[in-house]
């Protein structure tokens, strides 16, 4: 199959995606496979292993076996699972080049002092500690390479990390933490070839709002009423574009809105 310049640059890479069972992560897996179908290894991680197996089969069906796909069950909120992740990979899958830290969630719209402890903990354990632990698990592989190290860390933040809103205090705080960690990491790795990239979506229609409203689909649908949100493919294309730049190009920071959105709370809705 023919490849674009971007496809060629990605050839031979091993890519880990967290939260690959749904939404942006799932689309990112498919987009990497389509962009570089000749020689790629995709490690798809999430808690729902059966869904990951189905996605792996769908990718193989679509692009053929130039793309090898490894579904791997991993709960990023469990530090012991993250710390043993790399050693549990089969040998030929350990030479990771790109880590997409995408797993994340929002729970509820409660305001202090009524926010459930469980919701606070799961958001921080997944969005913040999970992302940091994944980064720490994979960075030694990057740092062992020439020129101080090579590899890409792509963190999925959010407009919520830049502009906190009422009813989202915990989620916004987790995404602000992602932003601080990412910016500090880029500075810490300045003497290397390791690229630290953050992509901050605005409104994207995925399972995100269904998770926020504890499975209540009608409440989730109301979030998008009168709007045309981004699709997960829109963000996946930007993730793959960032990873597919020439080695010396770092798309450090990207904020992406659908055209009706101008800030976390500024939406134009058709009535
Ligand atoms: N949708 C939006 O409007 C929006 C906007 C800005 C940023 N984001 C960010 O984009 C990222 C992806 O979200 P999405 O919109 O694609 O939502 P989604 O469709 O709900 O997907 C979230 C993914 O994260 C995984 N996940 C959740 N908890 C996990 C855990 N403990 N360990 C491993 N994987 C876990 C889920 O898989 P399992 O349930 O199988 O584990 C799922 O694959 C998140 O970081 C989110 O904060 C979304």
Could you explain the architecture of this structure?
With 271 residues, the protein is an alpha/beta fold. The chain has one domain (5-105, 117-200, 234-254): Rossmann fold, CATH 3.40.50. It has helices at 5-10, 23-35, 49-63, 79-83, 85-88, 117-143, 169-188, 208-212, 217-223, 232-243; strands spanning 14-18, 40-46, 67-73, 98-101, 150-156, 193-201, 253-256, 261-263, 266-267. The strands form two sheets. A seven-stranded parallel beta sheet has the order 3-2-1-4-5-6-7, with helices on both faces. Strands 8-9 form a two-stranded antiparallel ribbon. Helix 6 (117-143) links the parallel strand 4 and strand 5. The chain is globular, with a radius of gyration of 18 Å. The mean pLDDT is 97. The structure holds NADP nicotinamide-adenine-dinucleotide phosphate. NADP nicotinamide-adenine-dinucleotide phosphate binds at residues 18-19, 21-25, 46-48, 74-77, 102-105, 126, 156, 158, 201, 203-204, 206-208, 211, 232. Keywords: NADP, Oxidoreductase. Belongs to the short-chain dehydrogenases/reductases (SDR) family. InterPro entries: NAD(P)-bd_dom_sf, Sc_DH/Rdtase_CS, SDR_fam.
């Amino acid at each position: 199959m023919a490849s674009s310049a971007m496809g060629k640059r990605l050839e031979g890479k091993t890519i880990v995606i967290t939260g690959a069972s749904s939404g942006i992560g799932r689309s990112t897996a498919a987009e990497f496979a389509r962009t570089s179908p000749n020689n790629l290894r995709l490690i798809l991680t999430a808690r729902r292993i059966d869904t990951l197996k189905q996605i792996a089969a769908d990718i193989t069906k679509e692009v053929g076996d130039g793309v090898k796909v490894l579904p791997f069950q991993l709960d990023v909120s469990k530090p012991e699972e993250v710390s043993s992740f790399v050693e549990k990979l089969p040998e030929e899958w350990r030479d990771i080049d790109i880590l997409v830290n995408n797993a994340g969630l929002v729970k509820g719209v409660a305001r202090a002092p009524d926010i459930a402890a469980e919701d606070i903990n799961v958001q921080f354990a997944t969005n913040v500690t999970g992302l940091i632990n994944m980064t720490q698990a994979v960075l030694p592989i990057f740092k062992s390479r020439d020129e101080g190290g090579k590899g890409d860390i792509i963190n999925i933040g959010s407009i919520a990390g830049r502009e906190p809103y009422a009813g989202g205090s915990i989620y916004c705080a987790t995404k602000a933490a992602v932003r601080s960690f990412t910016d500090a990491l880029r500075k810490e790795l300045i003497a290397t070839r390791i690229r630290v990239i953050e992509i901050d979506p605005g409104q994207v229609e995925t399972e995100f709002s269904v998770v926020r409203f504890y499975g209540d689909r009608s409440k989730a649908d109301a979030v998008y009423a009168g709007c045309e949100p981004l699709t997960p493919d829109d963000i996946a294309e930007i993730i793959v574009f960032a990873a597919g730049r020439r080695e010396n190009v770092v798309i450090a920071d990207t904020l992406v809105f659908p055209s009706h959105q101008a800030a976390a709370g500024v939406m134009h809705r058709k009535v």
